[in-house]
Amino acid sequence: MAGTGRESRNGVLRVKIILASQSPRRRELLERMGITEFEVVPAQGEETVAHTLPPDQLVEELSRRKCAEVAAAHPEALVIAADTLVAVNNRVLGKPSSEADAARMLAALSGRQHMVYTGITVFCGGERATEHEMTCVRFRTLSEADIVRYIATGEPMDKAGAYGIQGYGSMLVEGISGDYYNVMGLPVCRLGKLLIRFGVDPLALAVEKEQKA
């Protein structure tokens, strides 16, 4: 895909990388992959798509739209866009609009399994690829007091499904099946494979990073 001719001596495409997300968790995970030189340019468009789509198709479409918006302004860059949502029996739970909404979501997740979907789109050199990852998460049974206390931490309010597995929300999760980092909002294994298709090898960049340290 990456036939741009912008290659470094170690075979890794040297191109400006843009993360089309303001999520601090996605920034952190990208850095953990060895990608430390990138710009953050959040997409500004509204994340609205007909919820008649199945969750896997919905997150792919949302990530495509985010990527297209940022890539239109930065056609010379490699753009990474992602969108994450939680679904219970195919009912989509986005970010809560209020504490009451967060309480309803957490009550719906209590004592049962749900699915976390993340759509990933990568654009570079006029080419685009979109995929998604799905992880199954199981919550312990939550009391009303559990829900009230967790919401009081403030953590649920900017997260799909009203919880963060990397924070206090870890105490609500009994187990997962699939990519843990997908639940944080960025499936790093799938993204890594996508980036290699575009000529950017995160492991090669990680080696460069360690050698400079």
Annotate the secondary structure layout.
Blueprint: E1 17-19, H1 24-32, E2 39-40, H2 55-73, E3 78-88, E4 91-93, H3 99-109, E5 113-124, E6 127-139, H4 144-152, E7 173-177, H5 180-184, H6 188-197, H7 202-212
Parallel strand pairs: 1-2, 1-3
Antiparallel strand pairs: 3-4, 3-5, 5-6, 6-7
Helix and strand content put the structural class at alpha/beta
Strand fraction equals 15-25%
Number of helices in the DSSP assignment:
7
Q: Tell the overall outline.
A: globular
Question: Gap between N and C termini, in Å?
Answer: 31 Å
Number of strands: 7
The major pleated sheet works out as: 7 strands, mixed
H-E string: EHEHEEHEEHEHHH
Helicity range: 25-40%
Summarize the structure.
The protein has helices spanning 24-32, 55-73, 99-109, 144-152, 180-184, 188-197, 202-212; strands at 17-19, 39-40, 78-88, 91-93, 113-124, 127-139, 173-177. By secondary structure, it is of the alpha/beta class. Strands 1, 2, 3, 4, 5, 6 and 7 form a seven-stranded mixed beta sheet that branches.
